[in-house]
Amino acid sequence: MELPLLLALIAIALPVILHVVRRATGQRPANLPPGSLGLPVIGQSLGLLRAMRGNTAERWIQDRVDRYGPVSKLSLFGTPTVLVTGPAANKFVFFSGALVMRQPRSVRRILGERSLLDLAGADHKRIRGALAEFLKPDMLRLYVGKIDGEVRRHVDERWEGRSTVTVMPLMKRLTFDIITSLLFGLERGAVRDALAGDFEHVMEGMWSVPVDLPFTAFRRSLRASARARRLLVEITRETKAKLERGEATRSSSLIACLLSLTDDDNSGARLLSEEEIVDNSMVALVAGHDTSSILMTFMIRHLASDAHTGRHEHDEVAKDKDDDVALTWEDLAKMKFTWRVALETLRVVPPIFGNFRTTIQDIEFGGYTIPKGWQVFWTAGVTHMDAAIFPEPHKFNPSRFENNQSSSAPPCSFVAFGGGPRICVGMEFARIETLVTMHHLLRQFRWKLCCKEDTFARDPMPTPLHGLPIEIEHRTCS
Q1: How many C-alpha atoms does 428 have within 13 Å on its Cβ side?
Q2: Residue 144 CB neighbours (<10 A)
Q3: 424: annotated binding-site residue?
Q4: According to the UniProt entry, where is the signal peptide (predicted)?
Q5: pLDDT tens digit string along 179-238?
């Protein structure tokens, strides 16, 4: 037998054997949640992934809740897991000190081991604080004009003069251009284009069985991640040299900001290592362009039939401004209805289906024991579509968020941005790019959907049918 084939078989068989041995010999606490761990290694992973791709993931989760209750055990991505649902479960996940973030092995291999997603305690606080430094309001005010410029160029190049466009790939490219420009100082050109292509492959294997074999999505993601990381290392070292020569400042980009941070002990030591900067830049790329592009795509999908209700406030903002004058922070504050539309879109179609924590000790929840080292899996849809929390949950109703949150909803019900100490650090950044983009599209165009069937699938993030093709018409031509 050839050595590569033998090694591949060992790579597959060894985890299975170890898993079976552990299950046969390990001491499990009594009173585990109901449910089954399923097949070794695979567990229920393929069933969940099939449901996500078939647009039945919420039903898949609800079926488990109906069968076992709000707490049940299963196995996802090679790890014993407990699914928890409801506001109390969300609060437990976001605030319990016995749980730490621990992404599936596939995510860790692709994004890195030193990212904000996986660190805990002092390391998490240190890196979150560093990212928050770049994303604080005083810094964000400086970026509104830059984002406005990127959106204007995007509209001129990819929307103007066309009768039809496909929204999802356009929004992904727009948010990618915004994030790479502001976070990394990467200008338009071949390098940015290549990085955009790599990140399409990075996303393919984020939620996959982490077996590194040829022709798998996981292998493609690993290779694309390696190329992206090499580029980010190069950008980091070039930015460091520019800072030393006085050719860049702390506000020039995210990497410049992170490189400028030093320990509080006056030693002058850098706060983050190169590995930490690269790992968290990878996370920022995923979080900063993928989730925002999904939000704006589904806003456009909804506004195809109801754009006139949100257009008035944008006309009001623009009436006293010259066409070539960029939007300001103060202009965005007037777009309250549009942001309510965004929040309701996030309630109905949350970009992140769910996420994981890992127990660092045996812990009790809902009358059951969750053993140390197990995953805890929470999802947004169970609370977002609970009629007891959000009346008529399938009805699109932005007025639910007139006070930026449904006044009748209990805490930890709306969890599109997570919650607790790990609530999305880039939430305000997402608000800015969403409002700026929707301002220019609503001001310049009318549109209608090309597809009669209005559905989407998750892979793992939601994607509308055929990428959401629409017919567009310039408002001045109507």
Answers
A1: 16
A2: 20
A3: yes
A4: 1-26
A5: 888 888 888 888 888 888 888 787 777 767 777 788 888 888 899 889 989 988 998 999
